[in-house]
Write a structure and sequence with these properties.
With 676 residues, this protein is of the alpha/beta class. It has 4 domains: 118 residues, Indigoidine synthase domain (Indigoidine synthase fold, 3-Layer(aba) Sandwich); 161 residues, Indigoidine synthase fold, CATH 3.40.1790.10; 153 residues, UDP-N-acetylmuramoyl-L-alanine:D-glutamate ligase; 170 residues, 3-Layer(aba) Sandwich (UDP-N-acetylmuramoyl-L-alanine:D-glutamate ligase). 38% of the residues lie in helices and 20% in strands. It contains 22 helices and 27 strands. The strands form 3 sheets. Strands 2, 3, 4, 5, 6, 7, 8, 9, 10, 11 and 12 form an 11-stranded mixed beta sheet that branches. Strands 13, 16, 17, 20, 21, 22, 23, 24, 25, 26 and 27 form an 11-stranded mixed beta sheet that branches. Strands 1-15-14-18-19 form a 5-stranded mixed beta sheet. A hairpin with a 2-residue loop joins strand 24 and strand 25. The longest helix has 43 residues. The termini are far apart.
């Protein structure tokens, strides 16, 4: 099985996203998350398997992609194959996996079905906003004394996912459950014409939701508002049991209530099924089918609304920015990465080792163009691939981008990188085939001189040949075009500085090592050993930036976990990021912005954070935003990348990087430094 996801140095292999789910998310198509405890603990075999497959079929029939979540041999899978569903359905040793259990189950390499809380975590990580389940847990009777409260409720209070369910089983204390959800800040709405809160098998529990939504469009608007506010809490949409099953449901409820009166606990399927002489099975299946249908319709409506909102934003932005029909251009590399991870600590060369092979799409230029495309820009992306299956895969993934400038060359291979790593994540062997980047020649790029000469901004990555960089810089000088150079790595950082081409650059985003290379190439001394303390890092960055600012408009020095340092022209207490129309003598300064906190447990991917930062910064500049807003957009985009299984998160939007959206986010004042 070939899985599509990106690699995190710390959490490699813990989360895997199925290719069908990954592609749907990348194309902004509706996806519905599904839990798996109903498979492992909710029903007996083969009813569990048939129900799981029927639910997935319903989701597909409504136009969405199903993403059943489960844990297989210590890996959280978002989207399961038919064989994996069958494995979970028949596995006798499957555990019930909630938030509490995830670390242990993963550390032991066990398999299990994910509860509502664990499924919410996985869905949120993958960027799936809608999750369908049967019913959620709640506050148990006498919970005020026992404190027996389901983790589903606290998860709803801290994970921004819309959970579509049939409410709460009447065996639980529904009143206290709703009170607890209110305390957690969870928006609860009944789906239908009334506010009656359902009790799983019964459309009425005797309690009411705070609100109700009448149709998928209203539900989608509620979810979109929750996500846009950045509250970091979820939405519970309670769907009453279908009318045709309500009579059977009422009989089941009466049996349950009789058992409660006798102080018998009947919280699982087997007890309820025995109590009702098997009547609950069909009602349970009908209820789950209905939830899947409703949830999928909501997911489709949400996807449509978000896409229309994005299109409206792009139209508004294009009117604002394109009165002179200018656009932006990105020139750089495309990579297809294959990561082979062994299942043993020691790999034996010369023979086949058991393991898994994973694919992801990257390349610095591709990542920046992807980021800009998701932030209401659609730059012309100029690159080169082979005419092969890898090219087909990456270009299919990049359908949302303007890839009309990508050459497909016969007899050439798309740039690929293969890493073979041990079970613990140590690199055993790495192989790269990047020769195709040398085909992004001056002659090829010159075909786009009209677009280059009228561009708002041109972004180059360090993968392209020196002669191509020189050519673009000469066009930029002739037409007074702003050029952003992303060095890619410390070896390639030197390319524009081998001649006077660097004097035509306006922006560059090096890290400290790349900044050292730039200085050394110009014959300027730079430290051989880089400092680790923040104050020393800032001092070195300012010193090394100063000579480059004789010609560059602004340097964005990335400092990893320490944030970012802006160096450039002083303007009213900040650094002027807006494109300059002409060079002039200016007072220089620097601003240090700390990085946003991302814990190791949250980190899923480290390969696209810098490119996300650059892309969002460029988007802010092109939209004429102030310096603080531009940098904060970049920092939010970088954080979104770090917690996503993709280098550029499919959920990246202008809303998601709006610094004013998340009222809980505290933005410290950046540190100001003068540059002599």
């Amino acid at each position: 099985v070939l899985w599509t996801f990106s690699i995190s140095k710390k959490t490699y292999g813990l989360f895997r996203v199925h290719p069908s789910v990954s592609q749907a998310l990348a194309e902004n198509k509706p996806v519905v998350a599904l839990e798996s405890t109903i498979i492992t603990h909710g029903m007996p075999y083969p009813h569990n398997l048939s129900t799981a497959k029927e639910v997935e079929a319903i989701v597909r029939a409504e136009g969405a992609t199903p993403a059943t979540v489960g844990v297989l041999e210590g890996e959280v899978r978002v989207g399961l194959s038919s064989e994996e569903l069958d494995y979970l359905a028949q596995c006798k040793s499957s555990l019930k996996v909630s938030r509490r259990d995830l670390p242990y189950v993963i550390s032991k390499g066990f398999s299990g079905g994910t509860t509502v809380s664990a499924t919410m975590i996985a869905a949120h990580r993958a960027g799936i906003p809608v999750f369908v389940t049967g019913g959620i847990g709640g506050v148990h009777r006498d919970g005020e004394n026992s404190l027996d409260i389901s983790a589903d409720l606290t998860e709803l209070g801290r994970t921004p996912i819309a959970v579509v369910s049939a409410g709460v089983k009447s065996i639980l204390d529904i009143g206290r459950t709703l009170e607890f959800l209110e305390t957690q800040g969870v928006c609860v709405a009944t789906y239908g014409a009334s506010k009656n809160f359902p009790a799983f098998f019964s459309p009425q529990s005797g309690f009411t939701s705070a609100y109700h939504v009448c149709n998928p469009e209203e539900a989608a608007k509620l979810i979109a508002s929750t996500l846009s506010l950045g509250l970091q809490s979820g939405v519970l949409l309670a769907v009453p049991i279908p009318a045709e099953s309500a009579a059977a449901g009422q009989q089941i409820e009466e049996a349950i209530q009789a058992a409660v009166t006798e102080a018998r606990y009947v919280t699982n399927f087997y007890a309820v099924n025995e109590l009702t002489d098997g009547k609950s099975l069909q009602a349970n299946i009908a209820l789950i089918h209905n939830n899947a249908k409703v949830g999928s319709q909501i997911a489709c409506a949400l996807s449509k609304q978000m896409n229309e909102r994005t299109l409206k934003g792009k139209t508004h932005l294009s009117r604002k920015l394109s009165s002179n029909t200018k656009s932006d251009v990105v020139i750089g590399g495309i990579n297809v990465d294959f990561i082979a991870k062994g299942k043993t600590e020691t790999l034996l060369f010369g023979q086949t080792n058991p393991g898994s092979v994973c694919q992801s799409f990257g390349g610095v230029g591709r990542n920046i163009a992807d980021s800009l495309s998701r932030l209401s820009h659609r730059p012309l992306f100029i690159s080169a691939t082979g005419a092969d299956s890898n090219s087909d895969a990456v270009l299919n993934y990049c359908k949302h981008m303007n890839t009309s400038g990508v050459a497909r060359l016969e007899g050439q291979s798309t740039a690929t990188y293969c890493a073979v790593i041990t079970e613990s994540g140590e690199l055993s062997l790495g192989l790269g085939d990047m020769d195709i980047h040398q085909q992004i020649t001056e002659q090829y790029v010159s075909q786009f001189e009209k677009q280059l000469s009228s561009a708002t901004l041109v972004c180059l990555d360090g993968n392209i040949p020196v002669s191509t960089i020189d050519y673009v810089c000469s066009v930029a000088k002739k037409h007074n075009i702003n050029v952003w150079y992303e060095p890619t790595d410390s070896e390639k950082a030197c390319k524009p500085f081998l001649s006077d081409s660097w004097k035509s650059l306006s922006y560059s985003s090096p890290n400290l090592a790349e900044l050292c290379t730039m200085n050394k190439t110009l014959g300027i001394a730079a430290p051989e050993v880089l400092p680790n303390a923040l104050d020393e890092m800032l001092g070195v960055a300012v010193t090394l930036s100063r000579p480059l600012l004789d010609h560059l408009h602004c340097l964005v020095v990335t400092l990893g976990a320490h944030g970012v340092l802006l160096c450039g022209e002083h303007d009213a207490g900040t650094v002027n990021l807006q494109p300059r129309k002409q060079k002039r003598k200016r007072q220089l300064c620097a601003l240090h912005y700390p990085a946003l906190t991302v814990t190791p447990e949250e980190t899923m991917n480290v390969s696209g954070a810098g490119d996300s930062l650059a892309g969002a910064l460029i988007a802010g500049i092109l939209q004429g935003k102030d310096t603080d807003s531009c940098v904060r957009m970049g920092l939010l985009a970088a954080r979104t990348s770090l917690v996503s299984p993709h280098p550029i998160a499919p959920v990246l939007t202008l809303d998601s990087v709006d610094p004013n959206r998340d009222q809980m986010q505290h933005w410290p004042k950046p540190k100001f430094l003068w540059i002599d």
